[in-house]
Amino acid sequence: MTAHPPHTPPFRDPHLPFAKRIDDLLSRLTLDEKIGFLHQFAPAVDRLGIAAFRTGQEALHGVAWMGPATVFPQAVGLGATWNTELVQRIGEAVSKEIRAMRARDDRVGLNVWAPTVNLLRHPLWGRNEEGYSEDPKLTSAIATAYTHGLRGDHPTYWRTAPVLKHWLAHNNETDRSTSSSSVRPRVLHEYDLRAFREAVEAGAVAGVMPAYNLVNGRPNHVSPYLREQLRTWTQEELLVCSDAGAPSNLVDHEHYFDTHEEATAASLRAGVDSFTDHGTDSSQMIARIQGALDQGLLTEAEIDTAVRRQLSVRFRLGEFDPGHDPHADVTDFDTPAHRALAQEAAEQAIVLLRNDGVLPLAADTRLAVVGLLADECKLDWYSGTLIHRSTPLEGLYERFGAERVEFAEGVDRVRLQTSAGTFLHVPASGAAEDEVRGAEGALDPALLAGRTDLPPLTTDATGTEFALIDWDEGVLTLRAPDGRYLSVAEDGYLRASADQPGGWVVQETFRLEQHGSGHLLRHIGTGRHVTVAADGVKVADENPETFQLIIVERGEDAVTRVTSEADVVVVVAGNDPHLNGRETEDRASLRLPAHQERLLRAARAANPRTVLALVSAYPYAVDTAGLAAVLWTAHAGQAAGTALARVLAGDVSPGGRLPQTWYESDADLPGLLDYDVIGSRQTYLYFEGTPLFPFGHGLSYTSFSYGDLVSRAAEGNLHVSFTITNTGDVTADEVAQLYTRAIDPALPRPRRELLAHRRVTLAPGAREELSFEVPLRAFEFWDVARGGWRLEQGPYELLAGASSEDIRLRTTVLLDGEPGAPRPVLQRGLDGADFDEQSGVEIVDRTKTAGDAVTAAAGRTGELVYRDCDFGEGVTGVTMTVSGQGAVELSLDGGPVLALVQVEESGSGPYDYTALGAEFIAEGVHDVHLRLRGPLRLAQVGFSG
């Protein structure tokens, strides 16, 4: 045994294993102290010399919320790089800046809530900017790289402790706290869980954060998959941190539990270890946990389990070994290397979608640069504050010379005339200082107040000319000549006070509402109309002012004026990440906002050599006909403008690739809440239409040839190699992509599926052989007939190329696997959710703790098909485990109804199941068809005879 001086308890001994040290520390903590540790803001324990600890430091693409930091491209932009080595270096830089910032501001936390690994299943999801890709393989590869960078490479001590967001099947902001994602077992295992699993198994993940939504009728904060799946993927203790306010949602919004004590106990037993609720005030959560203990809903042992997981993270972060922590003295912050990395990332994230030869631009090109985002460097909710800033216009000025660049923003310039004939006027601000929202840092930027140190708007005879932008869906911003946006602070007055639209509730957006021959101006953030009072212009519930909108100049007129004489026009269009598609708000359409369509049409009409540069957090459905070139980049951070200019000029050949499908129109999309990617043919994996631009697409300024595809199976892996040659005259990056498809599957499989990829740089004439080791499990699917993974034997096509549709090489391999077999329904029966096909069905929770059932969607008749059910030599009866009220009809192979089970109204609850039988005669192998009518739940079907 190791001897310890009296003043050195075992938990302080760095020579002992962490597990023993945690045991020792747990034994020294009182029950009250342990309960206190379960809140996000865990208090200090002074008697043991233990400091306070906070879970949760946002760091999605740089250190967020805590003031100035290096700002890298949005996560979807990092996904577009398809470059794991680059993303790992970005993770390293971010974690070093976190350590450096924490040294001077202890509000900065080391438990990092990043990355987001939710798959970009639906492009209208408001948080599309936060994910990496629609593909689970690419998502997990990028996420693994980022978490490895965040963690650091020391074998014992972690630089930061990353937590993956948001568990699970979370792709809608609409009703996100109450909606349920219906996820069939194949989609669950092959799609949604897969991105999390591969990142966790890679060994650099400290935990996960459950999402606000429900999955199959059960809130993610009481998900059995935390125990049944997540914690089986690693030997490490994983810390599960609730999302903000989600513990209270279980009662207040979802009404899943009657009391907060029940909800808290259920969450903790399911695997939630840290409760993020009520901000820094831990008293309510502590009271709920104590109440659950007093009511016998929790045990101290269950509390110990959660505290152990938190302590495991804290020990790994070196908190208890300051003399041994290799990251304690990190000071790398806004270094030249970090700035260069931000530019490299921004360059690699740019995707060339179309090019008729106008790009790259010649050095003497005369440019007209137009568009609402041409002179913007937009941030999003999870950005830090910019230290450096480069807009597309600034980048092009620097690269081509200001004398060769003309600019028109394309805003509508307007005055707002009151019913009294006066105009809205922005008074001089006097000596008020410029402020940037969030520059001082905030644990919760949602609580940042608007400015009240500037004078409110007034009216006068001439008024102020405002720049009006319609961001679509009638959402407008108004900007004063000094660049400040009209905003409303807590006192209700309108001021030109905001550097950009932003905030949790945006206070800089308005709607014009027709009213008689004029318009009312509604402030969206408060829902109130603008009124003119003696002490200034403000929002109020009464006496709304009627305005006349006086248009001084339309945006398209300004665009036409500067474009006709240019050699090339660059239209920079896209979105503001705080408006119309963001956290809490999904998009309504794929289309480009009408205001920006007007500008694009004007530019294209004035000059056929028009290049469209889309700067956006998500895909658009745009008409590319008549455009000389089209590029896309996510909001690319501090070096966005420089990077775009260098790509346009040919200093860098574009090498980004689309991380998700760009669809031609809204008609190609399923419903936002339809999570059945297989049944509704979603994403490149299953989509059977013609996309605007396919997954993996991206052009270059050079050309590449592919050859020498070779494959062989050995020792549980498929070894695949092929060569790439740069056949052009420009050094450039190519992203080689390897896909597969099952040639003759017994059930629907992806039309193609990414197996591996690699981004390589090749000089003109250079040739490189790429080799990949693909585990045979990558070809498996989730077999609902057996409740597990299965490799189907048979032929598989290997496809190598430059995108999911640009396939250059093909070969076929024959894989050994397990042959399919009919479902042994006499032995196993049929679980309701283990269907092969469905229509009008939702999966719901069988109980509040585990299991699934199926029910007909509201107002619909549910149809279920279970293929190849083996009844052996014969059955004579069927038993259905059901609850609720309604009927289940059973038929075989689409024929007549052979059995009917009806459930009468009993007044029992949805979890009160009963087993009802009926005569049913069948033998041999058949497809079972079930039709559900009414609001009943079907959990299981058994057969006897």
Can you walk through the features of this model?
The chain contains 18 helices and 47 strands. It has 945 residues and is of the alpha+beta class. A hairpin with a 5-residue loop joins strand 16 (466-470) and strand 17. It starts with 17 loop residues before the first helix and ends with a strand. 53% of the residues are buried. The mean pLDDT is 96.
How are the secondary structure elements laid out?
Layout: H1 18-28, H2 31-36, E1 41-42, E2 53-58, H3 75-81, H4 84-104, E3 111-116, H5 136-151, E4 161-167, E5 180-181, H6 185-201, E6 207-210, E7 214-215, E8 218-219, H7 225-228, E9 239-240, H8 246-252, H9 260-270, H10 283-294, H11 300-316, H12 336-348, E10 351-355, E11 367-370, H13 392-400, E12 405-408, E13 412-417, E14 423-425, E15 458-460, E16 466-470, E17 476-479, E18 485-488, E19 494-498, E20 510-515, E21 518-523, E22 529-533, E23 536-540, E24 546-553, H14 555-563, E25 568-574, H15 594-606, E26 610-615, E27 629-633, H16 640-649, H17 683-686, E28 704-714, E29 717-726, E30 732-742, E31 753-762, E32 767-775, E33 781-783, E34 788-790, E35 794-801, E36 807-815, H18 825-828, E37 830-831, E38 837-839, E39 841-845, E40 852-856, E41 862-870, E42 875-883, E43 886-892, E44 897-903, E45 914-922, E46 925-933, E47 937-944
Parallel strand pairs: 2-3, 3-4, 4-6, 5-7, 6-9, 11-12, 11-25, 25-26, 26-27
Antiparallel strand pairs: 1-2, 7-8, 10-27, 13-16, 13-24, 14-15, 16-17, 18-19, 20-21, 21-24, 22-23, 28-29, 29-32, 30-31, 30-35, 33-34, 35-36, 37-47, 38-41, 39-40, 41-46, 42-45, 42-47, 43-44, 43-46
Helix pairs in contact: 1-11, 4-5, 4-12, 5-6, 8-9, 9-10, 12-16, 13-16, 14-15
